Write the structure tokens for this entry.
Amino acid sequence: MKCNNTLTPGPDKLSWRHIKKIAQNDVCLQNIINIADACIDLGHWPSHFKMSLSIIIPKPNKVLYDSTKTFRPIVLLNTLGKLIKKVISNRLQFQSILKDLIHPCQLDGLKQCSTMDMGVVLTYIICTGWVKSLLTSTLAFDIA
């Protein structure tokens, strides 16, 4: 539901607004889940989801459009394929965290491992230290 309704649809001509409407029907949603399950079980990604459409968009506010640097190519993928890829990605992430396959220092891109979540964890650690009459210090830095 977090996907933007205004994004350009891919070769399948389905927008996120269409997918969200389809997913409200329990039978259709179960069919999408069955497709995702089959992709995982068979270890196969259908060629329909591999199809893409490349579009070249001119960059705004350019005086001349006579070089390739003044254009931006984008690739549009099938929306249903993107949805199923998100489902598979979330499942794999959940299972890999559950099975303790990800090192604790590898937090980038994981669900519930955002800066806000880390702030909550840090606050919890500090408060737990205070309860035990411990002194707590923190060193924070940004690596760019």
Notes: The longest helix spans residues 79-98. The helical segments are 16-23, 26-42, 47-50, 79-98, 115-131. The longest strand covers residues 52-58. Strands lie at 52-58, 71-77.
